[in-house]
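Q: Hi! First time asking for a complex rather than a single chain. Here are the components, and I think there are two in total. Is that enough to go on?
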Amino acid sequence: MKNSSSWIKRVVGAITLLMVAVLFAGCSSAKGAAKKVVHISYWHVNAQTQGGASVDELVKNFNKTHKYIKVTAKYNPNMYQGLMQNLQSAQASGKVPDIAQVGWAYTNYFASNFKYLTPTDAQNKFDSSKTFISKNFSKRTLSFAKDSKGNLVGLPYSLSTPILYYNKTMLDKYGISASSLSTWEGVSTAAKKIKEASGEYGLYIQEPGDTWAQQAMLLSNGAQIKKNGKATFASAAGVKAYQFYQDMVVKDKTALHTPWAQGIDDFVNGKVAIAYTTVAQASHIKKSANFNVEAITSPHFKGSTATVPVGGSMLAITAQKTEKQKAAWTFEKYMYKNSSLVTWTKGTGYLPPTQGALSSQAFKSYLNENPMLKPATSQIKTAVPWTSFPKNGLQAEQTMIDARDKILSGSSVQDTLKSAQEKINEQQ
Amino acid sequence: MSSNSKKNRFLTIAYLSPTAIILLVFMIIPIIYTLYLSFFDWNLIAPTKDFVGLKNYTSIFTDPVNRKVLLNTVFYILLLLVLNFLIPYFISIIVKFFISKMQTSYKIIFFIPSLFSLVVGAMLFSWIMNPVSGPVAFFVRYLGVALPNWTNSGAMAIVMLCLITNWKVFGYNFVLLLTGLGSVPQNIIDATKMDNIPKWRMVWDIVLPLNKSIAFYVLILTIVQGLQYVFTPISVITQGGPYYGSSNILYHTYLNAFVLYKTGNASALAVITFLIFLVLLYLEIRFVEGRTDRYE
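A: Yes, that's all I need. Here is the structure of the assembled complex.
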């Protein structure tokens, strides 16, 4: 009995295999005769847990609906820095991808060292109506993706802004209202109250390998990070903002100074009442916190308005052959469809870059399910590009990280910022 | 006769060539290229490389950050020597000569962590030792002590990162040293028992000198491998911070090369590291081979 059933299975299996083989053979010969399939590769930074699944879904749907283009997605570990490193070796070996995510911090480095097709050129080359870019993107959004010469390098794809998360359970317990957190002064007062009452820290500001959140703080005191290609953050307003931050960390000990992962752990474990970090952390924070957590827009200093630099990445076309460039442009336009962008947003927590997607019903209902994304969305309208120095931009960022480290260890704010500013300007 | 030696020579070359080619392509050529790059200012991708002479080298010794990193490296080496060499050596002697039971169990227990990835170890320790919300902090707070915020102090961060490396390397070094101690001839040890010589004198005057070559091997391994191993926890936990306080020469090379794209500085640092290791290697060859000659 057993024997005969396995025999039947084998025969059925063999026949199925044969049929599939014939089917595929038929397919490929038919295609080959009509039109050649263009293969393009798309490099992204999204691990399976950070939107990788949405990338796969988008690529799969695209390949299903586009007969003559086949996209292969390739994941690059270690975020935009890792992708940039791989891009360099790819350039050296001559096998570049056709489309890649480029982080804002790398805009100038990418523009001056790699060969790429600007979206404007792609539109002029391949589209009959030249309105795709102007129709979908606001001027402000496009400004995020411009290099120091004002040229559009790629199209903005992932947008994020820093927002203020707070432990509502804790704030309620000590009688602090969320509305008092709209200014940094208010945040400081709340932090003091929490420290005195509970002994826990009041505030944590993210400290990753960039100074994005600190720049937001300076900008929200009316300081400028860069003006006419030169660093200007050591101005009176800049020093005052950093001094305020240093006092909270060093003098009052109401703010926590620790690496990023640990700081977020401390917040979700209820050891820090307020956390200032990217909206991209929203789903992680929501999942991990066992208390009531809410978020509001970035605070500002009294007398100034809140201004945040935008985070995330753009899509740049690195394909060299015309047919591949055309395929990459087609793929890019598909990625900017409202439905694609909403899938992307749901998978990653990034905000959609186009006006259409922002006002689409699907995104709005998603916002209602995830109210922590609302403040970030409202900030996009006033956000500014992430500071990218024209020359030696990566070293400039490192200099600003070094300055932050020094200040939070208690060095003089004025001197540290001034020497960092001079060091950056020497290299410009 | 002559055809035989010719054949021998051919075979020698044939047998050696796979290794030789791999060494040449992946070791020797890159080392020479690194040396070449250390004289240029380059960003890894630009078509032009600016020749700057010895500037990259002079900057290593004049730039305060580089000096700090070099000093940290010395601190790391000293600490790793204690943690990964002296302590395992001490414990292996205890296990071998002073404890007669459960030798194998100790071997297995100590060896287990070296099977884990250092990334996993670093992430685990970063969570366990989180000074604000980790389990250790919770426990010591219960006892009325606050865990210091070790990520904010270079010295404390270095100690912590060394302990993480120690967790990984300890067992391996322990097993190596224990095996070395096992090769000390039993008859000599028996003779000391017959003569009623105290155990500590037996260890000091007989075991340690006889085991010198293995010990020296582990010593060099501790320095060379330790500096490389410690890279992972630095990269995962502190990224060299606070203000390069926990960076070492290898991490700083990586930072210059692949984060800041300052290829020249990175290459100069790599060449200096290479020279330091070369001296250590020379010492190892001299000591280890000298020893075996004498006792064979």
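A: Chain A has two domains: 35-158+312-373, 162-308+391-426. Let me know if you'd like any chain examined more closely.
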